[in-house]
Amino acid sequence: MMKKLTASALVALTLAGSPIPTHAADTISLRATANSNENDEDYDGLIVFKNYVEQASNGAIEVDLFIGTQLCSNGTECLAGLADGNIDIVIQTSGGTANIFPFVQVLDLPYLMSDDRVAEGVLANGSGFVTTMQDMVRDSSDGMVRLMTIGNTGGWRNFANTQRRVTEPSDLEGLKIRTVVADLPQELVKALGASPTPIPWPELFTSFQTGVVEGSKNGITDIMNMKFPDAGLQYVTLDGHAYMGALWFMNNERFMSLNPALQRVVVDGFYALQQATFASPKRKSIQAYQDFRAAGGDIYVPTPEEKAMFKDAAAPVYDWFKGNVDGGGRIFDALTEAVAEVEAGIETTRMNDGR
Fold first, then answer.
1. Neighbouring-strand partners of residue 216
2. pLDDT at residue 6 greater than cutoff 50
3. What's the rounded Cα separation, in Å, for the pair 235 and 99?
4. Pairing of strands 145-161, 215-218
């Protein structure tokens, strides 16, 4: 019988007892935007969100998707549009958000989360880390912006370049590495002996071709979607220095205007979105790595000892963050405590599973 249940029926079962209208007299429209394209993890997440919310609300909520730059073109514009109510939902990276909420750069601190399992546990809604960040976003925006969840947008950031294989920090010395304008990624590049070079994303392909930059910090799906190997990018080192977190924001007044049952639908919709963005890069990266190698690319996996060398070299970035962004250590401590808690839980699970 379970096989015969439709998707709509399954959603209905999860909402049993909720006062959701069967017919919406006045449909609520939510305007959601992502500065990406239909090949991106952000789009995958929005499609799942739209499908879930519209079904679970029995059509009381309609989600209108604006993919690209129709409503806004950068983090500042998008969050301004969100705050003034012209946009209801938007996704941004930490780099695109750092000039408004500097503390979100904590997601870019290198080598703190070791793998997907740890990252997904730390970023689960309800964790001490996520709750702390949600409180800080709301307080910093005077209650106008609400952080709904943190997903993924491309897997893990790894160092890639046009010049040589990188096996340890000294191999990065002197390379011009593209970064976003945010301070923390630039501090990391400097700590590893390279030269940070802020370049707008649309200009990066040409910048590789002309030698304006010689490397970047990207996930493999971004590298292949943008055809960077055609511009000379040949070397990728899987150091996994940062999980590519995606911050999903909603206009707080808009959320609070919903009745409790519809608020629950939206919250659960963001959970479904988060899970979709966690899964999407895992699948897409398989083909992306195969395509990179087929194009003549070199992929290097650091040994545990080499990975430790990268982390040691990057240690000054932690002090910089605590001294210049997180004076009281609130968000840094929340992250490191959540990582320790998740790692301990994973180890306990492994021990129990191995009995």
1. 160
2. no
3. 31
4. antiparallel
